[in-house]
Amino acid sequence: MKFSNKKGVFVMGVVSFFVLILIFYIEQPYKFIQLTKSDSVIIRPTFTESAYSDKGFYDYYKKNCDESCLTTEIKELSRYETSKNGLDVLKTFNFNIIDDITVHENPEILSKYKTVVLLHNEYVTQEEFDAITSHPHVIYLYPNALYAKITYEDNKITLIRGHNYPESSIRNGFDWKFDNTPLEYDSICTDWKFYRIDNGYMLNCYPDTIIKKKTEILLAMVKLFK
Questions:
Q1: What is the pTM assigned to this prediction?
Q2: How many alpha carbons fall within 13 Å on the CB side of residue 216?
Q3: Comparing C-alpha atoms, which of 220, 217, 212, 216 is closest to residue 27?
Q4: In Å, how far are 17, 44, 79 from 157, measured between CA atoms?
Q5: Which residues pair with 194 in a beta bridge?
Q6: Is cis: bond before 166, omega within 30 of 0?
Q7: Pairing mode of beta strands 115-118, 138-140
C-alpha cells in the first residue's frame, strides 16, 4: 500500500510537470524555437521610442504642446508602438541587435550582415534611411517603418518632415514608394503574409500583440533570411 501511494505521488508529479510545460508552451511558444543567425541584425527603434515619449512628438500631434515638442531627448520606451513584444521575442534568439543611433553614426555597419530586420522604426534620419534602403536584403517586420524624417544631434531628435508635418499633405517624409503605413491598423494578423519589394520583404500586418504566440510568423521570417 505504501508503494502504491509513492507511485501515485510520482505519477501525479510527472503529470503536473508536463501540465506546467504545456501551459508554458501555450503562453510562450516562441521560447521552444531554436534560432541562430549570427549574420543577421535587428535594428532597435530607439528614435521611435523617443518620439513616443512624454513631451514628445505625439503631444504635439494631439495639440497638447507647441513645436518645442518636436525636439526630444533620446529615451528608452518599451510599449506597443515601439515593438515591445517583437523586441522581447527576438532578444531570446542569437541575433545581433543594434539601434538607430548606431546605424545613423555608422551606416556602413549594415554591410556586415546578410539580413537586416526592422521593427517599428517609424522615425529615422536620412543617413539611416539610405543605409537601410540600399541594403539588398531587409525584412520589414512591422508596417509604417521609415515613415518620418528626423535629425539626430546632441542626444536629441527633431522632426523634419513627415507625419503631416510641416504641411498636412505630407505623409511619408521620404516620399518612399514602398510605404505601407495603412497596414499597421491590422494588429490581428489573420491573413498575414510576407510580400516582396525591391530590397527585401514586408509583413502585411502589425504583429506586436500576437508575435509571442504566432510562432509561424517567426519561422516564416527566418526562412527569408539569406
A1: 0.85
A2: 7
A3: 212
A4: 50, 15, 19
A5: 203
A6: yes
A7: parallel
What the block records as the C-alpha cell of 94 is 542569437
Torsion from C-alpha of 206, 207, 208, 209, nearest 10 degrees: 110
Quick check: 171 and 179 in contact, CB under 8 A?
Answer: yes
Q: What are the pLDDT tens digits along the chain (226 aa)? A: 444 555 554 445 444 443 333 333 444 544 445 555 679 999 999 999 999 999 999 999 999 999 999 999 999 999 999 999 999 999 888 789 999 999 999 999 999 999 999 999 999 999 999 999 999 999 999 999 999 999 999 999 999 999 999 999 999 999 999 999 999 999 999 999 999 999 999 999 999 999 988 889 998 998 899 8
Q: Give the Cα separation of 52 and 77 in Å (integer).
A: 8
Report the SS3 class of residue 43: strand
* SS3 at position 165: coil
Each as own residue / partner, the long-range contacts of residues 52-56 (CB below 8 Å, 24 or more positions apart, any chain) are 52/77, 52/79, 52/81, 52/82, 53/77
Secondary structure element (H or E) that encloses residue 177, with its range: none
